[in-house]
Write a structure and sequence with these properties.
The complex is a heterodimer of chains A (111) and B (121).
Chain A (H helix, E strand, L loop, with lengths): L8 E4 L5 E6 L12 E5 L6 E4 L13 E6 L2 E6 L8 E9 L4 E4 L3 E5 L1
Parallel strand pairs in A: 1-9
Antiparallel strand pairs in A: 2-6, 3-4, 3-7, 5-6, 7-8, 7-9
Chain B lengths: L2 E5 L3 E2 L5 E8 L8 E8 L6 E7 L4 E3 L7 E6 L4 E6 L8 E9 L5 E5 L3 E5 L2
Parallel strand pairs in B: 2-11
Antiparallel strand pairs in B: 1-3, 3-8, 4-5, 4-9, 5-6, 7-8, 9-10, 9-11
The chains are: A mainly beta (111), B mainly beta (121).
Chain lengths: 111, 121
């Protein structure tokens, strides 16, 4: 049972904007720990999408953006494309568990 | 360009010890700020962080698995080894090793392709 909760699925038509929430608590996101986001295309290893809450690694389109506030973080995808169909995971550190935790994961479907 | 590759048995019997090796290139685990993590993913389920070893030999473990895991490194061979004792069918998963960077506040920026491990008698 993860301490970072994500919606199981979100969907949108091509070109639309979708957001994925990552709800934590006072021992992780709420305590100020950074959030990272990963994209996992079907049958492949995860890929770093956003690091330190808002930063994109080189090569990641600016359609992807991250934010953090309070005990939650969000990933937004604007101008949704078919190639964005994947599972997305948030990650942070939890002080009560004294370890890193991943979110429950969200499957993005492009309609 | 950093790359990592996992290797180990595809099938392990319950109660046995699982040993996984991560062989990497393109970076050195003796360089300050470099770390290697192990993460697993049971079939159809979410990612689970397992352990991390840092350039300075510090080791970190998942609280729930701490008693069963050991992570070690051989800097000269560019390898990191994860051992898991007393495996159970619930440990069936794809196991990933990945590079984690202090400069990215411990984000994991390069992942191996993963190795699938089935625990079954």
């Amino acid at each position: 049972q993860s301490v970072l909760t994500q919606p199981p699925s979100v969907s949108g038509a091509p070109g639309q904007r979708v957001t994925i929430s990552c709800t934590g608590r006072s021992s992780n996101i709420g305590e100020g720990y950074d959030v990272h986001w990963y994209q996992q295309l079907p049958g492949t290893a995860p890929k770093l999408l956003i690091y330190i809450n808002t930063n994109r690694p080189s090569g990641v389109p600016d359609r992807f953006s991250g934010s953090k506030s309070g005990t939650s973080a969000s990933l937004a995808i604007t101008g949704l494309q078919a190639e964005d169909e994947a599972d997305y995971y948030c990650q942070s550190y939890d002080s009560s568990l004294r370890g890193y935790v991943f979110g429950t994961g969200t499957k993005v479907t492009v309609l | 360009q950093a790359t990592l590759r996992e290797s180990g048995p595809a099938l392990v019997k319950p109660t046995q010890t699982l040993t996984l090796t991560c062989t990497f290139s393109g970076f050195s685990l003796s360089t300050s700020g470099m770390c290697v993590s192990w993460i697993r993913q049971p079939p159809g389920k979410a990612l689970e962080w397992l352990a991390r070893i840092d350039w300075d030999d510090e080791e970190y473990y998942s609280t729930s698995l701490k008693t069963r895991l050991t992570i070690s490194k051989d800097t000269s061979k560019n390898q990191v080894v994860l051992t898991m004792t007393n495996v159970d069918p619930a440990d069936t998963a794809t196991y990933y090793c990945a590079r984690t960077l202090v400069i990215l506040h411990y984000a994991t920026d390069v992942w191996g392709q993963g190795t699938t491990v089935t625990v079954s008698s």
